[in-house]
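Sat 14:20. Reprocessing the chain from the morning session after the first attempt stalled halfway. Input below, unchanged.
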Amino acid sequence: MTSYQEVFERKEVKYRLDAAQRHAMLTAIERRMAVDDYGTTSIVSRYFDTPARALIERSLDKPLYKEKLRVRSYGIPSEDDQVFVELKKKYQGIVYKRRVGCSYAAARAYMGGMPYEQACREFPLPDPILAEASLSPRSLQIAREIDAFKERYTPLRASMVTICDRTAYAPLAIGGEGEATGVPSTLRITFDENVAYRDLFEEALIARASHRRPPVGFGMPRQLLPADEAIMEVKCAGPFPLWLVDALDGCEAYPSSFSKYGAAYQASMRKAS
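Finished this time. Tokens:
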């Protein structure tokens, strides 16, 4: 038994909001949902791809089925911090996510070619409960699924880093102040702001070309969205409640196929052209 959720199966719909739409949606949820226990967190995702970036190229074609592999941390991780190696698949609008939690040092070793179990034993998490969870039967099974993905797309390289500040909302507890009504227990709504990226392939080329002195600004994240925009994501195992549908219609917020990795890749390609 692990202390975090390893497997997700749900509908996830993204909306690109301007400041007025964001305000309208926050107003709609304020008496039904509240910021979760984590508050606003910085999320850093490192995406892996083939040298030709075949995974993101295929994803941008909007196929019926697509998949991606990333290492996600909450904040800039140290070697001992827990991070998640996540295999995310999407089929006919439903997202299936499976992940293992391990130390950042173990994740780097694992993505560098070391077997997952060996990486976790050589670079264990300091918390013994989390360290044990990283080697649970379920985690080892998920690692085998990740291994199959890695073999299918070998060789994989760290391709892009995306960064954002995320505020997540969960249903209010029944019976509490502002009692939630008509809010499915599985409903989660997140707002991502200050979305930025780093193109690791580009940085590797620049580092090789510049030898000892990289150019000014090298390795600094680039903004992906205007400062007044946010990405809202609605995650739910079932249909959206009527009040949420009405709120989306009221502020004319419509689903967007926005992908941080995809948008970062396209922005980087425009910059290079």
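DSSP finds nine helices and ten strands in the chain.
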